């Protein structure tokens, strides 16, 4: 749903991403919100400080809103006159509001299976089959996002990002034929597996306590290590190479990796991950933007505005 300037709206369902109580220049209280409908994210204001609003409306909830869309500094801002929290929303309503990806779940499942089928090493193939058949992975991998805000931050984003990284790695292997294909592809498929625990389900899509304390790199390396331990005679050297790729995929210590890439396969996975994340982040910024010109609002993550295509 796309809202336009001066358009009145009544009882439309939104996901509340953020809400903050503030005070204006006249010392009058109001609420500043970010609400979303699908991928679109709207800056919003409620021009009163009713305590009940702050008690009921919390990040991650769904709500019906009424009001009018206004032009504020070249972007659409929603002036909300009435807001009502939706308790126990139906799955149909959830699906109409939460951000969804660009590939459906059944297609992504087939794509992951197809990628695994290209692996020749029996230990690595067994590992991948076992991991993607784990109950937690089957339940969450195709539903959760790959990020809370910046990239692939939509339902199915984790699987979508993983497939992109794997396909980029395949292309690297075609160009740089000395890359160990099985190791690099397996690491690409497993590099973000820990995000099934790091992020909560939609509509909240926030970092869990476990995710904040341990991070997806540690959680993923632990999951894969445990899966490897259940495969008889899995070669130690192969285990170290795979785990190293997971631990180093952020590329730098200051970006959260406990080690930097020290193998060709690790640097390939890191660069594939970076390419997928940054290109999608630009695309997502464009899709979310509610500005009225041909450029997005200033993006604080990348310290620039992005030209809409």
From TrEMBL:
Example of a GO biological process term: rRNA 3'-end processing
Pfam families tied to this protein: HD
Domain of life: Bacteria
Membrane-traversing stretches: none
Entry-linked InterPro entries: HD/PDEase_dom, HD_domain, HDIG_dom, YhaM_exoribonuc/phosphodiest
Keyword annotations: Hydrolase
Molecular-function annotations in GO: hydrolase activity
Domain HD/PDEase: 154-287
PANTHER family: 3'-5' EXORIBONUCLEASE YHAM (PTHR37294)
Protein name from the UniProt record: 3'-5' exoribonuclease
Organism: Caloramator fervidus
């Amino acid at each position: 749903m796309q809202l336009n300037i001066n358009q009145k709206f009544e009882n439309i369902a939104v996901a509340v991403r953020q809400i903050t109580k503030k005070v204006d220049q006249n010392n009058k209280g109001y609420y500043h919100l970010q609400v979303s409908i699908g991928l679109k994210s709207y800056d919003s204001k409620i021009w009163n400080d009713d305590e009940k609003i702050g008690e009921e409306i919390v990040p991650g909830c769904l709500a019906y809103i009424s009001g009018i869309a206004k032009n504020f500094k070249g972007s659409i801002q929603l002036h909300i006159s009435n807001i009502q929290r939706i308790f126990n929303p139906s799955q149909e309503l959830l699906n109409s509001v939460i951000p969804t990806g660009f590939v459906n779940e059944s297609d992504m499942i087939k794509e992951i299976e197809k990628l695994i089928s290209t692996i020749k090493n029996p230990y690595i193939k067994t590992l991948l089959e076992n991991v993607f058949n784990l109950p937690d992975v089957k339940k969450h991998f195709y539903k959760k996002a790959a990020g809370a805000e910046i990239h692939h931050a939509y339902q199915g984003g984790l699987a979508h990002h993983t497939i992109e990284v794997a396909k980029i790695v395949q292309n690297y292997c075609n160009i740089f034929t000395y890359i160990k294909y099985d190791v690099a592809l397996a690491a690409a498929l497993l590099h973000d597996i820990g995000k099934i625990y790091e992020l909560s389900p939609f509509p909240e899509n926030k970092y869990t306590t476990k995710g904040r304390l341990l991070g997806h790199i540690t959680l993923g390396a632990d999951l894969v290590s445990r899966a490897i331990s259940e495969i008889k005679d899995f070669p130690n050297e192969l285990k170290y190479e795979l785990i190293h790729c997971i631990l180093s995929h952020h590329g730098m210590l200051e970006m959260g990796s406990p080690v930097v890439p020290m193998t060709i396969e690790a640097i390939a996975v890191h660069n594939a991950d970076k390419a997928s994340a940054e290109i999608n982040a630009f695309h997502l910024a464009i899709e979310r933007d509610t500005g009225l010109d041909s450029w997005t609002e200033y993006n604080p993550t990348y310290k620039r505005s992005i030209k809409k295509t």
